[in-house]
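User: Could you walk me through two proteins back to back? I'd like the raw sequence and the structure tokens for each, with a short line separating them so I can tell where one ends and the next begins.

Assistant: Of course. Protein one, sequence then structure:
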Amino acid sequence: MDTALPVVRSVADLRARVAAWRGEGLRVALVPTMGALHDGHLALVRRAAELADRVVASVFVNPAQFAPHEDFDRYPRDEAGDAAKLASAGCHLLYAPPVREMYPEGAATTIAVAGPAEGLCGAVRPHFFGGVALVVTKLFLQALPDVAVFGEKDYQQLQVIRRFTRDLDIPVRVEGLATVREADGLALSSRNAYLTADERARAPELHRALAEAASALAGGGEGGAVLEGVRQRLAAAGFGTVDYVELRDADTLAPVARAERPARLLAAAWLGKARLIDNVPVPPA
């Protein structure tokens, strides 16, 4: 029996598949990805299958969220491998459009997002969240899912998507899923493939430092000193540039000095050629 995952590459074909499911009264979930799939992505698919009757996963390396100096050309790609993994996780359809399908010649629309997009990765990669907002909005309108599932590893991205989905009245429920980690705590990421063996051994220090800092903050520790301690630990572990270590409100991502309500401790730092990001929840002190 052929168990290959069906693949569509055009908006028209995607909508036809979804319309047929709708005709059967089925709920549809969407899991947007850029491919190079790992167990974290597959956890999103399995969660989507719990929330809906049919799951569409998209694989599209979105050029709109990469600056010219970033890793668009070398970003890992393996559609055949991704399709096999998606099928094993219970996905029903792979949407893998070419760039010209997503951004036809003459496309001139952009989306600007403020609020949770400000600071953190938005400061270091000012192009990024506009590109994310544009492609995710297009995917939502192309697939018209009931629910879409995203990982909390990209916590700022998740909050940005929640914000513009509400602001634009897009009728999609945005579901977040807790970060999936290796046994040593390293958050799963496609960019972990850039790490050398030595760097991979050092990488879990990012999560360890954040987890211990979150405990200190929840215990009433002074924010500035705790965050500086994280930076020092990362430097001692061999990390290079630390883009940020910040405490933010868990909902709005506004900067906070202490966790008087649920907060999030977020960090991004370079280890060799890999830019690692992570975050942990901080309960009110």
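----
Protein two, same layout:
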Amino acid sequence: MSRQFDYLDDLEAFIAVAEHGSFTTGAVSLSTTPSVLSRAVTRLEQRLGAQLMRRTTRSVTLTESGRHYLEQARAAFNLLGEAERELQGQAGPLRGRVRMSVPTTYGHYRLPTLLARFAHRYPDVKVELNITNRNVDLAAEGVDLAIRLGDFSPGGLVARKLADEALCLVAAPAYLERAGVPQALADLERHRCIPFVLPRTGRVAPWLFRDGGRDIEWQPAPGIEVSDDVLGVVSLAVAGMGIAQSYDFIVHERIAQGELVEVLPALRGRTRPFSVIYAPHRLQSAATRAMIDVLVAARQS
């Protein structure tokens, strides 16, 4: 009787190349050569009758069929790994790897404490952390989970809200001494504002206020526009360049230290949601589920 799964070595080669983005780096991870992996992927494509990768001299990208196959292949390998762990004893330490992508706001201010908690609980799990404000493609880039602004659920993925983070206006004392302290929303028209340009739309993000129970979206006229990294608006505000809107969890220490002053506190009350995004349960590793549990538990504590 012929072997039903005699191509598993080729499948492992395909996953390595897809996750590392090149035959050379994938070969290093498997202690082999690029030519061996290239032949393995070619055999797999011939077996499936579909092109999985587009190859150039400089890059390797997945086709649509390749992205779908990679997702299913990872799920199958995860199931095999969990079956092996169960046979070896459930009391053993959790092992594996979690690849996660988070924005700079969470990566610098919220996540370090949570990762320390996770590492203490699961010391044998390797965490690969990508801090970026780009919305990564989880399946195509081999990312297990991402934290994103919003409470939306991209196609085929699950979104669980982590927190509604409060917003406030801030400025440096030196700026307010020079330009005056605004007393009402209309006063902001006469001030230098430091807004953030949304990467998805290229438009300036409106500032959110609540006035007497009424929600307001106010469009700041930019003195300086900041894009890509929203933390830049805080750095510029600290330098006395103008007024910025940011999250409480980012600026509260600077306010306590006197580097920043809250402006128009009567108009606070609005929030923006952050969520963790991931594939459905059946496609997750045990290590990924453990990370999600730690993230979600922090919201409830």
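The chain has three domains: 8-85, 92-163+273-300, 164-271.

Let me know if you want the two compared in more detail.
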